[in-house]
Amino acid sequence: MSLTLDTTARKAEHAQMFIDGGWTAAGAGGSFPTVDPNTGETIAQVPRGDSADVDKAVAAAKRVAVDWQFTDALGRAALLRALAEKVTENADELARLEALDSGHYLAKAQELVGAIPIWLDYFASIADKVGGRTIEVPGNKLSFTLLEPLGVTAHIIPWNYPLLIMVRSTAPALAFGNTVVVKPAEDTSLSALKFAELVKEAGFPDGVFNVVTGYGAEAGAALAAHPDVAGITFTGSTETGKQISKLAADHVAQVTLELGGKSPTVVYPDADLDEAVEVAVQGFCSHTGQVCVAGTRLFVHADVKDEFLGKLTARLDQTKVGDGFADGTQMGPLVSKKQFDRVNSYIELGKSEATLFYGGGRPAGTPEGGYFVEPTVFTDVDNSSRIAKEEIFGPVASVHPWSTEDELVAAVNDSIYGLFAVLLGKDITTLLSTARRLQVGGVMINDWFGELPMTPHGGHKQSGTGRDEGLEAVHNYTQVKHVAINLDPLRAATDWAGAPL
Ligand code: NAI
Ligand code: MG
Q: Which PROSITE patterns does this UniProt record tie to the protein (predicted)?
């Protein structure tokens, strides 16, 4: 049955899993609540899928895998484009669901949903353009590779950008002929279920795309462990990523991981400080700091630190924190009580490890019951303290003054993470020199992170393996087959009689 949303009442109904083209409750009948983080109130009950439900979804995806593999690339691309149109037609409802379930403020959720068709279209466009290669070999032989799909792919999704992160991996998986089982995060399953309706309306064959809702340790672990799953894409915490890798190892599945970060925003002495402050605030306050690439370590050159901090305070004073459906909100709540408690415990820790420079409390006037925190900044932060080392995943930044490039590079690289860096300054030689020396998967110079389907995204070190997006993402959803044909008569090509084996 179709998922329905009542925005005024902030309730949704008929949240059902999507398996083999049909709607279903959990086989064992269980469910769990998903809440509106603006209020803490329940929006809907979501099926608590378990390993038996995962088995059904994987069986469906396996049954149709060969047919889907041999559907023309152009045919697969046409379905992805039809889906893009469905997303555009239903953008308002998708955005409201996403805002309600995840805490993105409505204007941001609309922007994010507006971007989904661009991802679908990009991967539709390259479905028939990326292939194998021919290889020069000795003798009269033709040697070439085919890029073939993996088969059934699993997509375990986090709660921070539920729709976008699901689309960025399922779009290339489908484009290159894989079938899909999605496990959304338990805090934010609703937009995936709505999206599944659109997949069906767009005309995808039953079984090609499935969604199993449920807890990570139940449905998620069962999916990662399933022997018929050939590829797993996961975005989320480094801890869970390691567990998924171990489950995948038991059946030798290919794994793509986009994990945590502790990314630096570097301000050089020649930076435009008004712009630098704007980018820095985007960096640690965007989606209330719940962003893998969040710029939570502010490396500000000692010569400009005081001026930067003055401007930062003025900018943060203007940041409007509140209900995501209220006009003018720039920062909504954290996604859940669990994240709220976690972020607040780091803020308490920061008060003992460093100096609280800004924020640290509950923003004035925010709705009772919602998971709101103030933008928070610490100074006098030792680079080896826990608030400087660990991913907090809230709007919490630490300030680290620096003087020489060597000192800066050493401090930035002294991290288990290596996801992303922002560099803000004018001297291009210095900027590019630092960009080369940082151990990170992406560097943005004089701009804030902008995710695009055509640029590879992922991490070094414990921030991940493999790359989402760009042509690089093709490797996550394909495997190589080498084919060679001898063009000479067999006897003439080789003197088989007496040839050594
Ligand atoms: P998590 O990494 O445990 O959850 C992400 C997804 O993994 C969810 O769908 C969850 O159901 C699933 N999952 C959990 N345990 C699993 C298991 N054993 N096997 C298979 N799937 C499993 O993240 P969580 O606990 O919600 O958040 C904790 C921290 O993780 C955050 O504070 C943040 O530091 C980090 N995180 C990072 C994200 C990123 O974009 N890099 C996104 C979400 C969380
Ligand atoms: Mg929710």
A: ALDEHYDE_DEHYDR_GLU
Catalytic residue among 98, 186, 258, 451: 258
Residues 477 and 429 in one domain: no
pLDDT of amino acid 450: 87
Domain hosting 51: range is 13-259+463-482
> Strands 417-418 and 460-461, how do they pair?
antiparallel
Mean pLDDT of 36-56: 98
Predicted TM-score of the model (pTM): 0.97
User: Which pLDDT score is estimated for 496?
Assistant: 59
Distance 283 CA to ligand 2 centre (A): 23
Which ligand lies nearest to the CA atom of residue 257 in the structure?
A: 1
Q: For residue 188, report the distance from its CA to the centre of ligand 2, in Å.
A: 5
Residue environment code for 276-294, b if the CB has 16+ CB neighbours within 10 A, otherwise e: bbbbbbbbbbbbbbbbbbb
**Does 318 fall in a domain?**
yes
**pLDDT at site 424:** 98
2 belongs to a structural domain = no
Angle between helices 73-89 and 162-175 (to 10 degrees): 160
Q: What is the pLDDT of residue 438?
A: 98
Instruction: Spell out which residues line ligand 1, taking CB within 6 angstroms.
Output: 156-158, 160, 183, 185-186, 216-217, 220-221, 224, 235-237, 240, 243-244, 258-260, 292, 339, 342, 391, 393
Q: With respect to residue 228, please indicate whether it lies within any of the assigned structural domains.
A: yes
Asked if residue 6 belongs to a domain, the reply is no
What is the number of domains present in the chain?
A: 2
150: domain CATH number?
3.40.605.10
The answer on pLDDT for 490 being more than 80 is no
Mean pLDDT of 401-425: 98
pLDDT of 500 reads 63
* 263 backbone dihedrals φ, ψ, rounded to 5°: -75, 145
Question: Which ligand minimizes its atom distance to the CA of 188?
Answer: 2
Measure the CA–CA gap between 378 and 352, rounded to whole angstroms.
Answer: 11
Same domain, 196 and 234: yes
Mean pLDDT, the chain, whole residue set: 96
Mean pLDDT of 119-146: 96
**CATH number of residue 370's parent domain:** 3.40.309.10
> Which ligand is in closest contact with the Cα of 186?
1
Distance CA 155, CA 319 (A): 35
pLDDT digits (tens, 9 = 90+) for 331-340: 999 999 999 9
CA 324 to ligand 2 centroid distance, Å? 13
Q: What pLDDT score does 368 carry?
A: 87
Rounded Cα–Cα distance for residues 378 and 354 (Å): 6
Q: What angle do CA 140, 144, 148 make, to 5 degrees?
A: 155
One domain, residues 236 and 319: no
